[in-house]
Amino acid sequence: MINFFRNPKEKIFQLKEMDRDALIYRVFPRLLAELMRKYFRVEVEGIENIPKHGPVVIAPNHSGFTAFDAILLAHILQKDAKRVARVMTHHLWFFSKTIAIPAQKIGFVEATYENGVRYLKKNNLIVLFPEGENGNFKPSSQRYELQEFKRGFVRMALETKSAIVPTLIVGAEEANINLSQLRFTKFLKGMVIPIPLNILPLPVKWKIKFLAPVDLPFSAAAKDDRELVHDLCQEIQERMQKSLIAEVKKRGLNVF
Predict the structure, then answer these.
(1) Average pLDDT per block of 10 residues along the chain, 256 residues long
(2) pTM to 2 decimals?
(3) CATH of the domain at 38
(4) What number of other Cβ atoms are within 10 A of residue 170's Cβ?
(5) Are 220 and 161 in contact (CB under 8 A)?
(6) How far from chain centre, in Å, is Cα 197?
(7) CA–CA distance, 127 with 172 (Å, rounded to integer)
């Protein structure tokens, strides 16, 4: 598998000698991520909060209805923190082989509990959006309002003794305007589809802030304690929401 997040210090030369897969899945994604970083004038804060070794769960807010936040975050983790990120993504990326193979080659992993635990047990760093599609596809009228967190990321961290790094992505919700969303209740029950105003993102400045890591002083068996998992998840969400409000106020926005 060709993974463009693989070698942080690798420089790419002699493009003419590269095969098609290398160009598509290594060169182009890196170029796109660098262009995005410049386009959004990304400010990064708290990179020192990412553990240099061991299993880590990066838990960001999700927004913008595109995969730009996931791609850019993974690129910054690889380049600035020197950690390879396995990005846990929606199952629709793996709906067919046509889509799944390219997704896997650029470092995406289907967001299942089993996959998350498997990578964490190998001391990897994963990116998992606790809000899921409800955060990514929410209308812009609810921007920067965290949707209810799914609890799988806490259970994964407990089972594998992983640190959780709450992460704020500020700017994506202003760059991509979502008018509303469609929820299917019959043929594609549970599926949510956004109704965007713009496809190309606006050149809004982004800030990615890594908060202090959360270490959970519990045994692996605690993952089955539903009340404890709920409380830990809620505590992390409240902490992120409070920090997110502070960051939004710095931008002069009044959205709460």
Answers:
(1) 49 56 67 92 98 97 86 94 92 66 74 96 97 88 94 98 98 91 65 82 96 97 98 98 96 78
(2) 0.86
(3) 3.40.1130
(4) 23
(5) yes
(6) 23
(7) 17
Segments forming the whole domain that contains residue 66: 15-250
Asked if the structure places residue 7 within a domain, the reply is: no
Residues in contact with 164: Cβ distance below 8 Å, sequence separation at least 6, in sequence order: 56, 57, 59, 153, 154, 157, 213, 214, 216, 236
Q: In angstroms, rounded to a whole number, what is the distance separating the alpha carbons of residues 45 and 207? A: 8
